[in-house]
Amino acid sequence: MASLGRLRSLFLPLRQNVAKSMLPAVWERPTLLPFLHRDMSSSSDFSGAGEKEPPPAPGTFGYLLAQSGLTEDALDSLIALKDFTGIEGLPPLELIEEMDPEGEKKAMRREIERLKQEEIDKTRVKTVDEFGRAYATGKRKESIARVWLYEGQGKFTINGKAFDNYFPDIANRVHMLEPFVQTSTLGAFDVRSTVKGGGTTGQSGAIRHGISKALQLFDPNLRPALKSAGMLTRDSRVVERKKPGKAKARKSYQWVKR
Hints:
Elements: H1 2-22, H2 33-37, H3 61-68, H4 72-83, H5 93-98, H6 101-123, E1 134-140, E2 143-151, E3 156-158, E4 161-162, H7 163-166, H8 170-176, H9 178-183, E5 189-196, H10 200-218, H11 223-228
Protein name: 30S ribosomal protein S9, chloroplastic
Pfam family, one: Ribosomal_S9
Keywords: Ribonucleoprotein, Ribosomal protein
C-alpha cells in the first residue's frame, strides 16, 4: 500500500499538468481602465488577472481619472469623438453639443409661416368702392364703428360731429389717431365714421380698430406697420361679469363678525 500511495503522489502532478495543457485558452476582452488608472510614470507592466493593482498615487492622471468616476464606455465615447474630429462633412463637437432638435423644428415652422404670410401679402390689392373709399368695421367692448376712409385733408367726423367735439377727452382722441401716427399718414386721409354702443373708451377703440383695417385695405403696404403694432387685432377684453355673493366680479362685501 505504501508503494501504491507513493506512485500516486508521483503521477498526480503529471496529470494536473496534462489537464492544464489540454484546456482551451480563454482570452478576456482587453480593458482600457486598468492602464489609465495606474500611475503613468511607472514603467512596470500590468500582468492582468489575479494580480492586485496598487491604487494610483495622488496627483497622477490615474488618480484624477479614478476620482472623476468615468466608466470604460464613457472613455470609449470620448476617444471616438476625438478621432472623428478630422472627418470631412462632420460638424465640430461644439456644434453637435449645441444642437437642439426641438429648437430647429420651431425655427423651421416659424420660417414656413413667414414665407406663407409673405405670399399672402403679395396677393393683397387695394380695395375701395366706386367713390375711392375704403370701408371697414371696428369693434371694442360693446361698441361697433363703421369707418369710411378716403384721401383728403385730415377731416374727421363721428356721427356727424367733429371728432374733437365728440370726444372732449384728449386721451380718447390720441388713442383713436394712433393708426395714422404709426403709418406716418396723419392728415393725408379724411374719415367719416358712425359708432354706437358702449362708452367713450369703447367707442374710441372701435373707431381705432376700424381705421386700422381701412388703412390696410386702402394701401396694403401699410399692413406690416399696423400688424406689428397690434392694431389689426380685435381687442377681446371685456368687463368681467358679477358673481353671486360678490359685490362685483371679484370684490367681496365687508366682513361682519356678528
